[in-house]
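Posting this for the archive.
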Amino acid sequence: MRRNRIPIKSPREIQAMRIAGNTAANILQALAHEVKPGRTTGEIDHMAAELMRQHDCRSAFLNYRGFPGQICISVNEEVVHGIGGPRRIMPGDIVKIDVGIIKGGFIGDNATTIAAGDIPLETKLLLAATEQSLFEAISHARAGRRLADLCGSVEAFVKPRGFTVVREFVGHGVGRRLHEEPQVPNYRPNGKSPVLMPGMTLAIEPMVNAGVPSVRILDDGWTVITEDSKPSAHFEHTVLITAGDPEILTWRPREALPEMFGLPPF
């Protein structure tokens, strides 16, 4: 059933999405611990393929509109859609891993940003603000509220802290297809905004830059980088709208990932 073109999941579909989301979270957690100086992004991508085989699922990204990787892996000024290859991770890099998998006909989609060794305080603040902005947005993922309030909360959180949101790329509905209605930008959109309803599932994914918000795409046709080459951070969860509190379908314990170690709280 569709309302305002946004799919409403049945209880059976929601249970399938819980399984897919949990699988995606487990794979992301395992890959995050493999991000180490000296390792190549291609090696991480190969590890992702093996983990998906072990979890009896497949990549939602591979061959999607021609994308050649199992996951998206983006380093430093690369915002999203980076392709695993010979690039070697260096001490002080920040590495964004975006894992989308298909299991049981449904998609789990999540992302995180990991520091490969020590990073400057300003970069730690970027990561901390981006992750917290995700949870600010999730706090608005409640039935009866407007999607625009959820979207606008990201920019409202990061802008006073000196950061900017990417406007050309956005979150999205997710379910049987990787990209469903609605679009979920990280800023307040213009025009009429849909009311959130139980059974909607959203991939909420702040993409936050240390410098200017503008980006460009490299010659590979996929990798998005910041226009000023300053670092960018990316965090994502798949979230279910319920009759009560939002349910994070890709939930992972905060302490299970290395990306937040040493980061100051807001």
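Residues 2-248 form a domain with the Creatine Amidinohydrolase fold (CATH 3.90.230.10). The chain has a mean pLDDT of 94.
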